[in-house]
Design goal:
It is built from 7 helices and 9 strands, in the order H-E-H-E-H-E-E-E-E-H-E-H-E-H-E-H. Helix 2 packs across helix 7 and helix 4 runs parallel beside helix 5. 33% of the residues lie in helices and 23% in strands. The protein is globular. The chain has 208 residues and is an alpha/beta fold. The protein has one domain: Methylesterase CheB, C-terminal domain (Rossmann fold, 3-Layer(aba) Sandwich), CATH 3.40.50.
Length: 208
Amino acid sequence: MAAKEDLMNETNGTELKSVVAIGASTGGPKALERVISSLPQNMPAAFLVVQHMPSGFTKSFADRLNRLSKLTVKEAENGDIVQAGCVYIAPGDYHMRVKKDNNGNLRIKLDQDPPVNSHRPSVDVMLESLSDTGLNNIIAVIMTGMGSDGSKGIKKIKQKNKGYIIAQDEKTSVIYGMPKAAVHTGMVDAVLPLDDIAAEIKKTVGGV
């Protein structure tokens, strides 16, 4: 595989076809490792990840995923341009939003607004900002975790953007809280075991 520096340059020339937004909490780090490491290098998609995790832990988590993945994985920084083939992990204690700039690029915006659903970062904050971009090629994935973070966001993604929603199934979730709440919204298109999620993302994005 090419060096990560070369891979980043290659992804800059790949058209961004889809944005995949993933939310997880309890049990999420290992689940995300399984999903992200199973995705191919040449996907025309960018990945935004909110994993409920304290400040100081997300950088090492991103670095570990980067070593295991064919994609480029990094802790998100304020102002990052969202690019195909890259995975952006929300920093602990910061909400991660996305917004279109004057050139039509998606840029990451980090802030320390009050916690939402008792979380910062919050999955709902990420999803709702993504919905406000007006994109119609959004895939949202709600994975293992306690609580209901993400459920409001997927409603907006479905209603405003006609996005595709995936939830992890109960059997493979460490805690079936967030996926269960997502399913109860009636907005979920596919409920899948952990090891089928990467394949579903790949199929839905297409172009690989």
